[in-house]
Amino acid sequence: MTVPPLPEGEPAPTLADPHMLLEGYLDHYRRTLVRKAGELSEQQLRSSALPSGWTPLELIRHLTYVERRWLRWGFMAEAVPDPWGDRGPDDRWHVPEGLSSERVLAEFEEQCARSREISSSAEPAQRARVGGRFTTEKEAPTLAWILFHLLQEYARHVGHLDVVVELAAGRTGE
User: Fold this and answer.
1) Which CATH number does the domain housing residue 132 bear?
2) Which pairs count as long-range contacts for 41-46, CB under 8 Å and 24+ apart, including other chains?
3) Beta-carbon-side half-sphere exposure of residue 9 (alpha carbons within 13 Å)
């Protein structure tokens, strides 16, 4: 099952399949994240505009790892080197010195493509495999739960990025 690509915006209001809705909204938020990041200069991507101290590039890298942790390591139980690699020594989001913004965005896009493959090849009621993030069948969530969790994470973080873009460029909204 693949969600048809949309130029921009939310999935069609006539879409009723819950799996396709989850995938469609995830892609909507992924596209929105990349578009909003594209409104920022290199300096703005690497600087924090908020008291919490995170940068937009750190946020993008964090979401790359969130998808990796939940879908590759979690749902598929793939061996993922350093699943918490988005965190620095102080346990805050981190982009290693010398990692270009282009590479951070490319890794994000690569992970999103892999996430789409995983999601489209499984049923929403399917439980995560044991052996990766989850060690027992009892704790393994369904794909639907994971996708909904990712959706709320994106909704929150894209909202955060919207504030940063507003502070940097004066633009608001989707």
Assistant:
1) 1.20.120.450
2) 41/168, 42/101, 44/164, 44/168, 45/101, 46/95, 46/101
3) 5
Tens of pLDDT along the chain (174 residues) come to 333 444 478 999 999 999 999 999 999 999 999 999 999 999 999 999 999 999 999 999 999 999 999 999 999 999 999 999 999 999 999 999 999 999 999 999 999 999 999 999 999 999 999 999 999 999 999 999 999 999 999 999 999 999 999 999 777 666
Provide the CA 126 distance to its chain's centre, in angstroms.
21
The pTM is what? 0.92
Measured distance CA(120)–CA(50) in Å, rounded:
37
Within-domain flag for 10 = no
Smallest CA-to-CA distance from 74 within 119, 26, 129 is with 129
Determine contact, residues 66/150, Cβ cutoff 8 Å: yes
Say which residue the tokens 């300096």 belong to. Answer: 43
Q: How many domains does the structure of the chain reveal? A: 1
Identity at 43, one-letter amino acid code: Q
